[in-house]
Design goal:
The structure holds 2 protein chains of 2 kinds. Chain A is mainly alpha-helical. Chain A is built from 11 helices and no strands. In chain A, 75% of the residues lie in helices and 0% in strands. Chain B has one domain (5-100). The chains are: A mainly alpha, B mainly alpha.
């Protein structure tokens, strides 16, 4: 695949959906943390050090329910195990990135940054990744502070609609690929069906259902498709 | 107010390690073709699963807005190839749907 040269403007445009999507969700986190009686300092530390949306919300929920620290940490671990898969997948495309930068890049791997980076493989370069990750992080941390500090500046319905933007982004990244390759269409539908079965089956705890559905559907791809059909 | 430092540090560690280890350990390894093919499916399976999760775990009052936004973004992205246009339009549609539902 031909690599494109790094373009600041292009990278900013690509990062914009992440920034717009993260900010209101982070605001909601900040406000909810305040309502859970967590100090501003601790709330900021959640977003600065953990930087994982779903598990931060889950932690507030569990803190409110009086769950012990160790159980919240175990639940966080399970929920974030899916990043093992994403981190492994990214390793394919980071062979040219100096290894000393990988710990910084790894910190910024979220569902959203992973999606944007994996679907823009031709643009992968150190500045591209650091900017996408860095701007997402900034939006997440600043959103948390704003939410904690001034609460509902945006009408709730607008805030919720902006949160839909993150799912819209996943769809905008995936859909064109579905139309380009039957193989991608098949494996995506398979993954969706497996996850839905796990979700409604209810026999796996949250977290396991995600990571096992990703693992199983990607593995099944190996058996369903022949080598030469392979994408890339 | 409680002190949440221990909790935050514990959560940070168990979040960071799964993000770091595969990337760090695999990046300079030569991996087999089958394993590479398996890894190359992960972006598609992950995104598909995240979208489905977004829909089936959405709050009831956001379900229609989420579905509308997801379909519009997919359609516009297919037609125009513009990520930002697709996402902003989806947010707009979700907001409008939310006004009526």
């Amino acid at each position: 695949m031909d690599k494109k040269k790094f373009s600041l403007k292009e990278t900013l445009v690509i990062s914009l959906p992440l920034i717009i999507g993260y900010f209101p969700v982070a605001m909601a986190f900040g406000l909810l943390a305040k309502n859970t009686a967590i100090s501003l300092k601790d709330t900021s530390l959640f977003s600065i050090l953990v930087f994982a949306g779903a598990s931060q919300f889950m932690a507030l929920d569990l803190i409110g329910a009086g769950v012990s620290n160790i159980n919240i940490i175990i639940a966080t671990f399970l929920l974030n195990l899916r990043h093992l898969m994403m981190s492994a997948a990214l390793s394919l495309d980071m062979k040219e990135i100096p290894k000393k930068f990988l710990p910084f890049i790894a910190f910024g791997i979220t569902d959203e940054s992973f999606s944007v980076i994996s679907f823009n493989k031709d643009k992968i370069s150190l500045p591209f990744i650091l900017l996408v990750n860095g701007l997402s992080y900034l939006s997440w941390v600043l959103g948390t502070l704003v939410g904690y500090g001034i609460g509902e500046v945006l009408p709730l319905s607008l805030q919720a609609s902006m949160g839909v933007g993150l799912y819209a982004m996943f769809s905008a990244l995936l859909t064109p690929e579905l139309t380009r390759s039957r193989e991608v269409l098949k494996i995506s539908l398979l993954a969706a069906a497996i996850y839905a079965a796990f979700y409604y089956g209810g026999f796996l705890s949250a977290g396991w259902d995600l990571v096992l559905a990703i693992l199983l559907s990607s593995l099944l791809g190996l058996f369903i498709f022949k080598e030469e059909e392979s994408h890339e | 107010m409680n002190n949440y430092l221990v909790l935050v540090l514990g959560m940070a560690l168990v979040t960071y390690l799964p993000r770091l280890l595969p990337l760090y350990l695999l990046s300079d390894k030569t991996i087999g073709r089958r394993f590479a093919r398996f890894l190359s499916y992960i972006p598609y399976t992950s995104l598909s699963i995240l979208i489905v999760r977004g829909v089936i775990s959405a709050d009831k009052d956001m379900l229609l807005a989420s579905l509308g936004g997801i379909f519009l973004a997919g359609y516009l992205s297919y037609k125009t190839n513009s990520l930002i246009l697709s996402v902003l339009s989806a947010i707009g549609l979700a907001f409008v749907i939310k006004l009526f539902v």
